[in-house]
Design goal:
binds the ligand C[C@H](O)[C@H](O)[C@H]1CNC2=NC(N)=NC(=O)C2=N1, alpha+beta, 114 residues, Gyrase A, domain 2
């Protein structure tokens, strides 16, 4: 299977297909440090990254935001002193789409340059 970081997001609508439990099992090993969380019965992917200070956490936030804009798929991002928490899910289907796994992998790739 092609690496998630090499893949592109597709535009999502309410008819987009959520990932199946089998697909989650296949994709999750590519983003081992992400947690699958349940937010009021909506599955999401979440990971926090540590940084030395607020400025660096904010710079990382901006890079993740730029990637989201260029892929047309958008996260929730919380920026704190020394920490950025990124959460991916697909609003259109209130759950997880392949796009979320692609963006989680791309977020990890961005973090490697910090
Ligand atoms: C038209 C456009 O593709 C949609 O509005 C996109 C924009 N970004 C999005 N981001 C996320 N995370 N979920 C969505 O359903 C979503 N919809």
């Amino acid at each position: 299977m092609a690496q998630l970081t090499q893949q592109k997001c597709e535009a999502c609508t309410k008819d987009s297909k959520p990932v199946t439990p089998d697909e989650i099992k296949q994709l999750k090993p590519q983003i081992p440090q992400w947690d699958l969380i349940d937010n009021q019965d909506e599955d999401r992917l979440q990971r926090s990254y540590k940084f030395p200070d607020f400025k660096t956490a904010l710079e990382f936030t901006k890079k993740v935001g730029d990637a989201a804009e260029s892929e047309g798929h958008h996260p929730s991002i919380t920026t704190e002193y020394g920490k950025t928490t990124v959460t991916w899910w697909t609003h259109a289907i209130s759950g997880l789409h392949r796009n979320d796994f692609i963006m989680a992998a791309k977020t990890d790739e961005i973090a490697q340059n910090f």
